[in-house]
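Saturday, quiet lab. Running sequence design on the structure tokens for the scaffold JK sent over.
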């Protein structure tokens, strides 16, 4: 009987921990050494990355999250999608977040995820209304390219149906380079931001040095030696859910995000702000 009590106690403790964990903010540091073009000086680019906020607030007007990001003194911030929860009224949250960042002097670039795109489910124009409004608050990079601090950023807007279709169907219709184009071989450091890293094999022709994604929430529950437990597609042990990985000729960085959606907990998986230093050396 006592064993049942102990197991029950441990389960209750884990559940309380998992809910409390959604309020923690942790900064994770990664470093990449990259080749520096011969006509340029060696330098380090410091990039902050957040994803999957899902309307989560850390303090009034998200001040704790905004201050934590601003305090990292990054050269710029990549916001890799799913700031909102697919509802037109979430616009207020996105405006509050990006205005707060701007007030703190943070230079942000916003790449849409599936939850921005799902605004179309409320009406054909809802996504366009959201994008038009947000344009005056932050630089949006969807199927577009922008050069920032010696890096070239490209945003891939993954078609919404890909998030729902079975993986085996996708190869038949998904052309990532057709949507976003490929990087020129110009010696610069090329970063692709694509919200869902599950499709990383399809991004290869874009020729990025680094691909950044989120979406998987670190697998929600993380187990020692195993990693993430479940994906938004309800696949068990989805693999690359959090970390910096070698991927083809480049790297893949997957952030576990800062918020939660549907399941209001995270286990051994603190909300994450990533700081990535790219050291360009000869
Ligand atoms: Fe997502």
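Result came back. Writing it out in full:
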């Amino acid at each position: 009987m006592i064993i049942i009590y102990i197991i029950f106690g441990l389960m209750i403790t884990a559940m309380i921990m998992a809910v409390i964990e959604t309020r923690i903010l942790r900064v994770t540091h990664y470093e990449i050494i990259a080749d520096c073009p011969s006509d340029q000086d060696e330098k380090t680019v410091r990039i902050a990355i957040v994803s999957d906020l899902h309307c989560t607030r850390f303090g009034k007007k998200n001040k704790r999250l905004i201050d934590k990001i601003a305090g990292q003194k990054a050269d710029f911030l990549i916001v890799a999608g799913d700031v909102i929860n697919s509802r037109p009224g979430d616009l207020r949250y996105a405006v509050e977040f990006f205005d707060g960042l701007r007030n703190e002097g943070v230079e942000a670039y916003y790449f849409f995820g599936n939850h921005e795109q799902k605004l179309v489910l409320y009406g054909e124009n809802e996504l366009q209304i959201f994008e038009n409004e947000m344009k005056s608050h932050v630089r949006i990079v969807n199927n577009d390219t922008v050069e920032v601090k010696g890096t070239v950023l490209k945003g891939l807007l993954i078609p919404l149906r890909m998030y729902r279709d079975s993986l085996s169907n996708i190869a038949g219709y998904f052309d990532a380079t057709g949507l976003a184009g490929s990087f020129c071989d110009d010696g610069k450091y090329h970063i692709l931001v694509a919200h869902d890293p599950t499709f990383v094999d399809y991004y290869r022709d874009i020729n990025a040095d680094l691909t950044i994604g989120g979406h998987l929430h670190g697998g929600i529950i993380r187990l020692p030696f195993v990693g993430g437990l479940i994906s938004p597609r309800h696949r068990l042990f989805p693999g690359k859910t959090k970390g910096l990985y070698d991927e083809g000729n480049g790297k893949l960085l997957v952030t576990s995000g800062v918020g939660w959606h549907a399941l209001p907990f995270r286990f051994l998986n603190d909300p994450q702000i990533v700081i990535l230093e790219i050291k360009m050396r000869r």
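Notes for JK: The pocket of fe (ii) ion is lined by residues 52, 81-82, 113-115, 195, 215 (CB under 6 Å). The CA atoms of residues 214 and 255 lie 5 Å apart. Ask whether to fix the surface positions before the next round.
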